[in-house]
Amino acid sequence: MSTLTKVLERNIKVIEKNADLTEGRFRLGHHLMPPVGWLNDPNGLCWYKGRYHVFFQYAPFDVEGGLKFWGHYTSEDLVDWKYEGTALYPDSPYDCHGVYSGSALAESEKLHLFFTGNVKIDGDYDYINEGRETSTLHVESEDGIHFGDKEEIISFEKYPEEFTCHIRDPKVWKENDRYFMVLGGRLKGDKGAVLVYESENLKEWKFKHIITTPEAFGYMWECPDYFELDGKKFLSVSPQGLKREEFRFQNIYQSGYFQVKEDGSVDERDFREWDMGFDFYAPQTFTDNSGRRLLIGWMGMPDADEEYVNPTAESEGWQHCLTVPREVTYKNGMLYQYPVEELNELRKTGVSVSGSSAEIPVNGPFDLDVQVKGEQGKVSLGENLFLEYQDGDMILTLSEKAGAGRKVRKAHVPSGVIESIRVLADTTAVEIYVNGGEVVFATRYYPETQEQAVKVEAVECDGKIYVLKNYVME
């Protein structure tokens, strides 16, 4: 451990010691959050030696971002989580200005982490076309907690010349005894693309080709993910620079996926957004020990502070969280997402919901799971959040106080019919799943009190609302 690493580690432990994951009225009950400071992208998601590992972008010294590290949570069951501290530090010549996003590859005896090291050269640079060095780095671990020396496996000097300096966020997987990697990139001329690499040994990587759309679909593709499900291949990206529309691309930046064609190409017309809420970006998927494809996203949004904010930053010294783990399945020609079944263990007591109108008082986190009938209806969380549906369209509206700048998001339901709604509500985070995950909304919200009435209005509704216990976060 270098002297710099020791200093950073000591300083982080000091500020984390004074933080309490359970104190503060905005603290979350079942969404992973930083002990202090800033959280963004989920990184290195994997199952390794009997535990789930969730790393995340972490800026402990600055609630508004700043110098990036990797924080680390582990769990045996996706319900009880342990904070393992800081896993990676910006302590080498390759990443002295930030340990940027990446992924994990879990093999039988070693856990491999791949990530982007960020270096910004002092001077008058735009840091897009010049002045930035973003090499792909690699570290190994035998226990998933302690990591060895960093090594540069792809130098910034060896990326294809047609790209700008914006190349980052490696996702690595194994296929037919060979390793593959995708990197998010920005081509010169402002066109988003993904770089594809191949390796036999995880050390030496050969550039193969790029994946992009015929016409520019945003100027940058961040956080790529490439996976196979039910014999079909998918490319997930977070494009920046898409034009906002009424029913899609409503956020500053987007996250979604393409179904990859047989020739390996993608078409912007096939792009489908993962989540239609205010707070969702940079998702990553992985396969667990049971073979499920799981997804976790960042419940936040880059550069959104001019539109909406998080009161946690000023009042409690922390900002942002992750979504709950979602299982991804292929159905009706698209990908569905739904909370992993383990989260049902959070349910304590349940109250039945039935009839044409139901109103249930709550005081804290809850899980509303109902079947509904009719072409129109409404779910209300006090005077804070309203979900209305009519003729296959969904409208999510937040009040001025609870939204903290968040106002309205809309979505078309591909099937055209709303049959079920699940609202998984935390103290200051809500995830809404329509038709078992056909459409999803994730958003932060800030009710003045946890005591509120949850109301369901429909032609007919049938289901339950559950009080939820908290995760155990040590």
How would the global form be characterised?
A: globular
Going by helix content, strand content and strand pairing, the class is mainly beta
Number of H- or I-type helical stretches: 3
Q: Termini, distance in Å?
A: 25 Å
Give the biggest sheet. Answer: 10 strands, antiparallel
Low-confidence stretches: none
Helix content: under 10%
Instruction: Provide the residue-averaged pLDDT.
Output: 96
Number of strands: 32
Based on CA atoms alone, the radius of gyration comes out at 22 Å
What proportion of the residues form beta strands (DSSP E)? over 45%
Would you summarize the structure shown here?
With 474 residues, the protein is mostly beta strands. Helices cover 5% and strands 52% of the residues.
Secondary structure blueprint with pairings:
Elements lengths: L2 H15 L19 E12 L2 E9 L9 E7 L5 E8 L10 E8 L4 E10 L11 E10 L9 E4 L8 E13 L2 E10 L3 E9 L5 E7 L8 E10 L2 E9 L15 E4 L12 E2 L7 E7 L5 E7 L12 H5 L1 E2 L1 E2 L3 E6 L2 E6 L7 E17 L2 E8 L2 E6 L3 E6 L2 E6 L1 H4 L4 E5 L7 E6 L3 E6 L4 E6 L6 E18 L6
Parallel strand pairs: 1-19
Antiparallel strand pairs: 1-2, 2-3, 3-4, 5-6, 6-7, 7-8, 9-10, 10-11, 11-12, 13-14, 14-15, 15-16, 17-18, 18-20, 18-21, 21-22, 23-32, 24-29, 24-32, 25-26, 25-32, 26-27, 27-28, 29-30, 30-31
Key phrases:
mainly beta; globular; ten-stranded antiparallel β-sheet; 3 helices
What this model shows, in words?
By secondary structure, the chain is mainly beta. The chain is 5% helix and 52% strand. The protein has 3 helices and 32 strands. It has helices spanning 3-17, 312-316, 400-403; strands at 37-48, 51-59, 69-75, 81-88, 99-106, 111-120, 132-141, 151-154, 163-175, 178-187, 191-199, 205-211, 220-229, 232-240, 256-259, 272-273, 281-287, 293-299, 318-319, 321-322, 326-331, 334-339, 347-363, 366-373, 376-381, 385-390, 393-398, 408-412, 420-425, 429-434, 439-444, 451-468. Strands 23, 24, 25, 26, 27, 28, 29, 30, 31 and 32 form a 10-stranded antiparallel sheet that branches. A hairpin with a 3-residue loop joins strand 10 and strand 11. The chain starts with a helix and ends in a 6-residue tail after the last strand.
